Predict the 3D structure of the following.
Amino acid sequence: MNFIMNKLKNDRTRSIIFMIIVAVMWSTGGLLIKLVKLDAIAIAGGRSFITALLMLALIRKPNMKFSKYKLGCAVAYAGTVILFVIANKLTTAANVIMLQYTAPIYVALLSAWFLNERITKLDWVAIFIVLGGMALFFIDKMTSGSLLGSIYAILSGICFAFVALLLRKQKDESPLESVFWGNVLTAIIGVPFIFGSAIDTSSMIGLLLLGTVQLGIPYILYISAIKHVTALEAVLLPIIEPLLNPVWVFLALGELPGPWAFVGGLIVLSTIVGRGVIRTLKANKSRKDNEAA
């Protein structure tokens, strides 16, 4: 027991545990969204309202000065979470999480314009493989609703990429505050949709779990943990989320993606992970070479 407690006092060990917990908590989103019997925008607004209150208790006095990057980040965040919830109501959780997980590819493409960062050959290879994997999602027989859901999931991934880029533009500001204002904006947009709905006890519990267990607490833990894990760990540990998300939905509701979507998801996920691992290993080698010189 003393050995375990001593390990937990180590920032890196504690942060790795936090990241695993975060990924598992995030992965419950698909199931909880499907269980809440409310309009998608109402769910997004109610979830973010609860999350914003949780973050406000931690921040206490949010900075009221808004730069164009903070405003942009709030808008991109609102787009990410609203589109994600809408997509989950229209298509399978597996389709949504895998298509949203293409965000690093959009970051690579947009970084050249937004951050003046060079796109490498590795990035281009990953981009074309991911596009091929995404195309497989649309080979399966789809209803008009599931097709629209997949499109919303892709748009959610693009918005999420902008969140990442805009947070990087605010290196000297609090990332938690930017996420806080994004939740405030989402609540302003979505909460009015709740008042016209008949909400039962199970939906209220679902919203509470979405706002705290699935979104609020994980974000707080993630921002705390990201400072103390290696870049490789930061790439690998969140993979737990897209792997577990469809598992919970299958176990509870028996929902499965189509065979082509399943193959496409494996291609997307393995490509994103592979790209992240290779980039990290190259960066570590370059740093060691520079230190040796």
Remarks:
- The CA atoms of residues 1 and 214 lie 29 Å apart.
- The two ends are 44 Å apart (CA to CA).
